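Exercise 7b. Backbone tokens:
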């Protein structure tokens, strides 16, 4: 199985719950592709640490990692405190990622980022020496982090600008069907064009090299969702989508709401496990 995860800021707590169900059930998976905030979740899954990954979502994410008040204090930490997540949460203490286990490659972790200034989506299979930089790059949202991440001489930002749901990027890793795509936004909800004040804000704060892709990202996202629906209708992939009672937003910080998002994902993940296992032998 290949798993593909959409990001979506703190909506990605939902996909953490889905992955927890898959890990608990021991569902075999050969490859997982993480985009934006879901790259971190994918890393925990690849390391066999989803119980820990869920704790990060419910205990660390509410604790000031995102603060739009910091947008007006440029001398302080960025609004998206991505460096704290990567340098402290993932590499230190109780929440430390098990890099050795992750690099064993079962499943193989892939991470996507947007290359600057070309705007192309780049799929990477991280190595020990660049793992944390790829995770940083994949989540480096221009509005919140407002920095580029340099890897091997090239600059990268958040994957959502070029590949918000990287379901069709070719992998070097062989995998058994199916491909399972976990969305964090209900696919019937089209992403709207930024309002005039949002466009003005993006022009003000986003570096010029990636301003165009930032302003057009809604068109790319809606086109990809239409492709996903067509692929699902043709039986070429399985879509897991949030139900109507999932109310997480990109900026949700309330711990109880994040916990509920994880629990809803866990419920949907258990339904996915049952679907993947299929009917028992001999059933009509």
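Sequence design result:
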């Amino acid at each position: 199985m290949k798993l593909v995860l959409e990001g979506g800021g703190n909506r990605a707590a939902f996909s953490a719950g889905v992955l927890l169900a898959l890990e608990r059930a021991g569902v075999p998976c050969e490859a997982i592709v993480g985009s934006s905030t879901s790259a971190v979740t994918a890393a925990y899954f690849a390391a066999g640490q989803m119980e820990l990954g869920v704790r990060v979502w419910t205990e660390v994410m509410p604790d000031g990692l995102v603060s739009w008040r910091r947008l007006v204090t440029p001398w302080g930490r960025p609004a998206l405190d991505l460096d704290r997540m990567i340098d402290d949460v993932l590499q230190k203490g109780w929440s430390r990622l098990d890099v050795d286990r992750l690099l064993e490659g079962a499943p193989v972790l892939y991470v996507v980022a947007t290359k600057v200034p070309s705007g192309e989506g780049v799929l990477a299979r991280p190595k020990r020496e660049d793992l944390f930089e790829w995770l940083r790059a994949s989540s480096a949202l221009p509005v919140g982090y407002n920095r580029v991440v340099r890897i091997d001489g090239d600059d990268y930002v958040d994957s959502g600008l070029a590949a918000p749901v990287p379901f069709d990027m070719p992998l070097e890793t062989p995998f058994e069907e199916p491909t399972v795509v976990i969305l964090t936004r209900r696919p019937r909800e089209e992403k709207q064009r930024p309002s005039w004040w949002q466009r003005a804000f993006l022009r003000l704060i986003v570096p010029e090299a990636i301003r165009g892709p930032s302003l057009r990202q809604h068109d790319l996202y809606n086109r990809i969702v239409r492709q996903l629906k067509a692929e699902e209708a043709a039986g070429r992939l399985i879509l897991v989508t949030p139900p109507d009672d999932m109310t997480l937003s990109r900026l949700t910080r309330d711990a109880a709401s994040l916990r509920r998002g994880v629990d809803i994902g866990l419920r949907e993940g258990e339904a996915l496990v049952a679907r993947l296992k299929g009917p028992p032998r001999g059933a009509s």
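Instructor comment: The longest helix spans residues 211-233. The chain has a mean pLDDT of 89.
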